[in-house]
Design goal:
The complex is a heterodimer of chains A (304) and B (455). Chain A is mainly α. Chain A contains 14 helices and no strands. In chain A, helix 1 packs parallel to helix 3, helix 9 (182-194) packs parallel to helix 12 (230-237) and helix 10 packs antiparallel against helix 12 (230-237). By secondary structure, chain B is an alpha/beta fold. Helix content of chain B is 27%, strand content 19%. Classes of the chains: A mainly alpha (304), B alpha/beta (455).
């Protein structure tokens, strides 16, 4: 008679890493649907292709590195989808492939795999692609069309007319695949918030800070919130478990920092958009935030 | 409803199988194994030799150390062995084995070892403490801290409130629930005695709101006591039942005090530092039995349950009865037993065999079949922060586990491992199934050893 002798607790919550990743991937189907609707089948092909390359590079890397193959946890799929969603629809597939390999191998795998990467893999890969092929990475087209068009933030920076709020909200504007439709991002985010897979502090602090600072600086806060990659960044990148702080307090500070950096880059920097670099910058500060933003310890309050 | 911070909500408490079943006293066992230590604190020395005849209720082991509780023969018979034997708490412990003999049964009547008085008012606090100590009573919620020590607060600590813990927040267990339904008057009596011993004027009974029948039953029992007549000999001026939110670990001492009185036990301190003493309902019943009838702690209520038991129920068992004998009297095991746990599924100890004795700490024998026992490989921490949100103490379990793996004991201490109550909330919610509680136990042991070595 041999009984199992594992340590307590002997029961567990249903949620595990796989199911969490499944929910994130499910929530991302909404922005993918919007991207396909606005930018055509090409967009869907780019998403599927990038994701497949991400999965494949994880398997190959882990096999070469003689590590356990953990591709079934779904995290490589998430990285692949997220990367595709922040690329322009016109990007050549081979560049997207380099991006996916960079994200999985360089940014994640070499740092120790899931849980150990310092930077958000999708964002770091996008930064590398942008530095390597700046023209291809900023070649935007109008929805339902192949006509080259500038993003709303670029138009704003150049002092030109920008699309209306409604078009920005539903996603009828030029931009990266998944960043355009605020509506669909919110649908996906709402699912994750309801399932308690992501929490409110980072996105709220992020979006709130951008809106508030834009207002203080005399810009249109609603436009600042609806344009660029703020929404997908706030809900899907600033909530990434691995590369953001672990406590509620820390996540709030993270969002705050992202907001300040984004406004600085958008209004005072050379680039029209700053979400990508803001989050990467705050990723560096995450260990520091974790060190200081600790929860209140029980029994350290003064008793009445 | 009253509450504490964090903790977890469990989807199923699995209490239905036994909550409605009255406590049934089991037949006397043929043989009992009584470990010389069944309390937190110091072990006892045997007072009997191999071959001695002992009667039920006779004190067979004791010590002069203060933090201790004597052991009594739970059946009449003959001492056949005094040696180290397996114990459900993990290590082999010197134990006294008694083989029951029928002949001695009649003598048992004359063996009442304690001075008895059913009137609390005529007893002095000192007498109550003495009765409780001589009866070998320990905290029956599972922690087994000697009760007489708990009700002897230092002179400089003023205790204003006695909390009687009727939360039973662990899934599966219904032993305390049944006691509240079946013996509310004894709980009250025991609570009054404890209050008198300590000199506290208020008694609060805390019960989770998933045991509404128990709340109602105790409230009904309380009715004749409210308002309390002035100048009552026990000094108790206020008794109340408080309904608490069903949330784990509501029955944790610190969480319970926080929820009821909104006071926090200081880090590294005890409830008596903030004027509170907490006792389990089972302990209150044991105290009442010791005072009223002179009965020492030789039996206790055990919930025998889980998917691996044929007839789950609550039983009154002689201390020292083997798990096997108890389970057999509950219809035996069914299906493929994968795990046997002493205690509940959140903090209980998995045991390796069934020849272990029921000890004073055994509030539940949980037998789980294969389908309920999942074995997980731990995967990498994804830093989701669920453990931090679940921790009722405000610790960062993810980092504590990391530092333990790295053997960085300084950081483990800096991140307040000493405050961990091992409730298991963090490990329950961890999506990577990291053995968090295991690491904390390892770290605490390591730090303890280091302190001893350094001194």
């Amino acid at each position: 008679m041999i009984f199992n002798l594992s340590v307590s607790p002997h029961i567990y919550a249903k949620e595990d890493t796989r199911s969490i990743m499944r929910w994130v991937n499910f929530a991302l189907l909404f922005p993918i649907a919007a991207a396909t609707y606005f930018f055509g089948l090409k967009a869907l092909i780019l998403v599927v292709f990038t994701t497949l390359i991400a999965i494949l590079s994880e398997v190959v890397f882990q096999w070469l590195a003689k590590r356990p193959i953990t591709v079934s946890d779904g995290s490589a799929t998430t990285t692949g989808i997220l990367l595709a969603l922040i690329l322009p629809s016109t990007l050549p597939l081979w560049m997207a492939a380099i991006g996916a390999i960079t994200a999985i191998v360089l940014v994640k795998g070499l740092f120790g795999g899931l849980g150990f990467n310092i930077f958000n893999p999708a964002l770091a890969a996008r930064a590398l692609l942008l530095a390597s092929w700046p023209v291809a990475m900023t070649h935007w087209v109008k929805p339902f069309d192949t006509i080259t068009s500038a993003t709303p933030l670029f138009l704003a920076k150049m002092g030109q007319a920008v699309p209306g709020y409604w078009d920005l909200f539903i996603g009828n504007r030029a931009g990266s695949l998944g960043e355009t439709s605020v509506l669909m991002i919110l649908v996906g985010a709402a699912i994750l918030l309801c399932k308690k897979i992501i929490d409110w502090p980072a996105p709220t602090a992020y979006i709130g800070t951008v809106a508030l600072l834009a207002f203080i600086l005399g810009k249109d806060p609603l436009f600042a919130v609806l344009s660029g990659g703020l929404m997908i960044g706030a809900f899907f990148m600033a909530t990434d478990y691995v590369t953001t702080p672990v406590t509620t307090k820390g996540r709030f500070i993270f969002g705050l920092g992202c907001g300040i950096m984004t406004v600085l880059i958008r209004f005072y920097g050379g680039f029209p958009e700053g979400v990508n670099y803001s989050i990467l910058f705050m990723n560096i500060l995450t260990p520091l935030i974790d060190k200081y933003a600790r929860p209140q310890l029980f029994g350290r309050l003064k008793n009445k | 409803m009253r509450n504490f911070a964090n903790g977890i909500h469990l989807p199923d408490y699995h209490k239905k199988a036994t909550a409605l079943k009255p406590i049934r006293e089991l037949a006397l066992p043929k043989r009992v194994v009584l470990p010389l230590q069944m309390n937190l604190g110091c072990p006892n020395e045997p007072l009997v030799k191999i071959g001695d005849a002992v009667v039920e209720g006779q004190k067979i082991a004791d010590t002069s150390k203060f933090v201790s509780a004597p052991i009594h023969a739970s059946v009449s018979g003959k001492v056949t062995k005094i040696e180290r034997l397996p114990n459900p708490c993990g290590f082999d412990v010197p134990s006294i084995v008694i083989e029951r003999t029928e002949v001695l049964e009649s003598k048992a009547v004359s063996s009442k070892p304690l001075a008895v008085s059913s009137n609390i008012e005529t007893l002095t606090p000192e007498e109550i403490r003495k009765i409780v100590r001589e009866a070998g009573i320990v905290g029956l919620g599972g922690a087994t801290f000697p009760t007489h020590v708990k009700i002897t607060p230092p002179a400089d600590k003023k205790i204003d409130t006695i909390i009687i813990n009727g939360c039973e927040c662990e899934p599966y267990i219904t032993a305390d629930h049944r006691l509240m339904l079946e013996r509310p008057a004894d709980i009250l009596y025991g609570a009054m005695a404890i209050a008198k011993a300590i000199g506290a004027s208020r008694i609060v009974i805390g019960i989770e709101d998933n045991k509404r029948d128990a709340i109602e039953r105790l409230n009904r029992t309380l009715t004749p006591f409210s308002p309390l007549p002035e100048g009552e000999g026990t000094g108790v001026r206020e008794i109340s039942v408080v309904k608490l939110k069903t949330k784990y670990p509501q029955g944790g001492e610190k969480q319970l005090i926080k929820a009821i009185l909104n006071r926090e036990v200081p880090s590294g301190g005890l409830p008596l530092d903030i004027g509170v003493v907490v006792n389990n309902v089972g302990t209150a019943v044991a105290v009442s039995e010791a005072i009223k009838f002179g009965t020492p702690l030789i039996k206790r209520v055990v919930t025998v349950t889980g998917s691996g038991v044929k007839e789950p129920q609550n039983v009154l068992v002689r201390i020292g009865t083997s798990f096997e004998a108890v389970i057999n009297q509950c219809g035996g095991r069914v299906g493929d037993t994968a795990k046997v746990i002493m205690g509940g599924p959140m903090t209980g100890l998995a045991v390796s065999a069934l020849d272990l004795p029921v000890v004073k700490a055994t509030n539940c024998i949980l037998v789980l079949s294969k389908k309920d026992v999942k074995v997980f490989e731990e995967s990498s921490c994804i830093r989701c922060g669920r453990c931090i949100k679940a921790c009722p103490i405000g610790l960062m379990p993810n980092f504590l586990a990391d530092f333990t793996k790295l053997k960085n004991w300084e950081l483990v201490e800096e991140y307040n491992i000493a405050d961990c109550i091992e409730c298991g909330c963090c490990a329950y919610v961890c999506p990577s199934r990291i053995y968090l509680v295991h690491y904390f136990k390892v770290a605490k042991k390591e730090l303890q050893l280091r302190k001893v070595v350094c001194k």
